[in-house]
Design brief:
It comes from Azospirillum ramasamyi. Pfam families: ManC_GMP_beta-helix (PF22640), MannoseP_isomer (PF01050), NTP_transferase (PF00483). This is mannose-1-phosphate guanylyltransferase. By secondary structure, this protein is an alpha/beta fold. It has 3 domains: 271 residues, Spore Coat Polysaccharide Biosynthesis Protein SpsA, Chain A (Alpha-Beta Complex); 63 residues, no CATH class; 105 residues, Jelly Rolls (Sandwich), CATH 2.60.120. It contains 11 helices and 29 strands. The protein has a 6-stranded antiparallel sheet, with no helix packed on it. The chain has a 5-stranded mixed β-barrel with strand order 7-10-8-9-13. A 4-stranded mixed sheet has the order 15-16-17-18. A hairpin with a 2-residue loop joins strand 17 and strand 18. Helix 3 packs across helix 6.
């Protein structure tokens, strides 16, 4: 493989997750890949840009001469939860990334199903493709080293191997699985046969792995020959492959997305690609690499990669520190002062505050589990809820009334709808609104208002070129979001 005959690689961005480990910033409807945690861009955007720039370009995915110049990427394929489809599409649009496609999962079925879907979809028109499987919520600080590792992995993949990327350990980490490498591959200098996959070890065992030098962290990133992956799935996980094939065959197009058939996809066993294939195949290979990688699996990981002050603190947002040491403090929209505290995580958002010892950061998931068990909305969404047309935020709720702020993007509109139990009063505070109310259409300008009676068919649109901001006052006997009867919807939510 050389620079003139480089085989294109199809990046597959896995954008799943439930948002539990970085609560309260990350939520079920807005998980960490959609958040700007490690840069000014979201993690999904960083992942897409990392595999978009071509050799000789500049920016976050630029390359240096040498092995990295052999890597050429095609447009990415995105696999995401159907509830996140508009978030994913909009963030990719903002990054000027046009995906090969966006496949919507009606339910999470782990990474074996996602990899099977990617291989089936891509081999339909590119049977010789190589698939680069990338979780969309990982941080990689050395993009050039990553490309060089991909170039090595591509040579191994062209030899028919299923390749994983092993991160050279920097500490005796007990939170990751490990890979023990075997003999080096003749076909690809820098790639090795996999001798064993090892579960998360105890501290004592992890220290031994670090000292021996033949173990790497299992990154969860892979490079597969698509056709070979299908053959290995047929051999080791036929139920996963069959369910995914049926889900694709019975699925349908929806705007710019592809919806899997829910009933067929539900038949797929929920299992990781590691367990389903990599630990069973005799074709597994590993490329050890040092690429500045972290899976951002807890708040402590963001402290690890963050820019620290002289006392070892990472501060994000409106934060004041006094006598604090080795803390991670993040505050959105509120002044947060931390005094005389060590090794703490403090995260402040509009509707929740988290305070934890940094060593217990992995236990945040237990709080999310408790919130879910109690049916509390703080595990699912923020006060600001994103919709394909913009967003809304609840400002105040009382007896039989609720006040919200709505922001509608230029050129966007809500569904044509009605409510059985509530009336709505809209006040325009910025922009211009085009309101459908029954049989009439009304232009409503700044500082003007309009009333929508109970049961009236209505629609709100932004015909302008600037965001439209509305204060909405709802009044009635029931104010839940499920009291919406959609009669027409450009986003396919009828």
């Amino acid at each position: 493989m050389n620079g003139n005959s480089a085989q294109k690689i199809v990046p597959v961005l896995l954008s799943g997750g439930t948002g539990s480990r970085l609560w309260p910033l990350s939520r079920e409807l807005y998980p960490k890949q959609f958040l700007p945690l490690c840069s000014d861009r979201t993690m999904l955007q960083d992942t897409a840009l990392r595999v978009s720039a071509q050799p000789g370009s500049t920016g976050p995915g630029s390359t240096q001469p040498g092995a990295a110049a052999e890597v050429v990427f095609s447009a990415p394929l995105v696999i995401c939860n159907q509830e996140h489809r508009f978030l994913a599409a909009e963030q990719l649009r903002q990054s000027r990334c046009t995906p090969r496609g966006i496949i919507l999962e009606p339910a999470g079925r782990n990474t074996a199903a996602a990899c099977a879907l990617a291989a089936l979809a891509v081999t339909a028109d590119a049977p010789d493709a190589l698939l680069l499987i990338l979780p969309a919520d990982h941080e990689i600080r050395d993009a050039d080293a990553f490309r060089r590792a991909i170039a090595i992995a591509a040579r191994a993949a062209q030899a028919g191997r299923l390749v994983t990327f092993g991160i050279t350990p920097t500490r005796p980490e007990t939170g990751y699985g490990y890979i023990r490498r075997g003999h080096s591959m003749d076909e690809a200098d820098g790639a090795y046969n996999v001798a064993a996959f090892v579960e998360k070890p105890s501290l004592e065992v992890a220290e031994r792995y670090l000292a021996e030098g033949t173990y790497a962290w299992n990154s969860g990133m892979f490079l597969f020959p698509a056709a070979r992956l299908l053959a290995e799935l047929e051999r080791h996980a036929p139920a996963v492959l069959a369910a995914c094939r049926e889900a694709l065959e019975q699925g349908s197009r929806d705007l710019d997305f592809f919806r899997l058939d829910a009933a067929a996809f539900a038949k797929a066993p929920s299992i990781s690609i590691d367990y389903a294939v990599m630990e069973r195949t005799d074709r597994a290979a590993v490329v050890p690499c040092e690429i500045g990688w972290t899976d951002v699996g807890a708040w402590s990981a963001l402290w690890d990669v963050g820019s620290k002050d002289g006392e070892g603190n990472v501060a994000v947002g409106d934060v004041l520190l006094e006598g604090a040491r080795d803390c991670y403090v993040r505050s959105d929209n509120h002044l947060t002062a931390v005094v005389g505290v060590e090794n703490a995580v403090v995260v402040v958002v509009d509707d929740a505050v988290l305070v934890a010892d940094r060593s217990c950061a992995q236990d945040v998931k237990r709080i999310v589990d408790r919130l879910k068990a109690e049916g509390r909305s703080e595990s699912v969404s923020h006060r600001r809820v994103h919709r394909p047309w913009g967003s809304y935020q609840s400002l105040h709720t009382g007896d039989r009334f609720q006040v919200k702020s709505l922001t509608i993007a230029p050129g966007s509109r809500l569904s044509l709808q009605k409510h059985h139990h509530r009336a709505e009063h809209w006040v325009v505070v910025n922009g211009t609104a085009l309101v459908t109310r029954g049989e009439e259409q009304v232009m409503v300008y700044e500082n003007q208002s309009i009333y929508i009676p109970i049961g009236t068919v209505h629609r709100l649109e932004n015909p302008g070129k600037v965001p439209l901001t509305i204060i909405e006052v709802q009044s009635g006997s029931y104010l839940g979001e499920d009291d919406i009867v959609r009669l027409e919807d450009v986003y396919g939510r009828n």
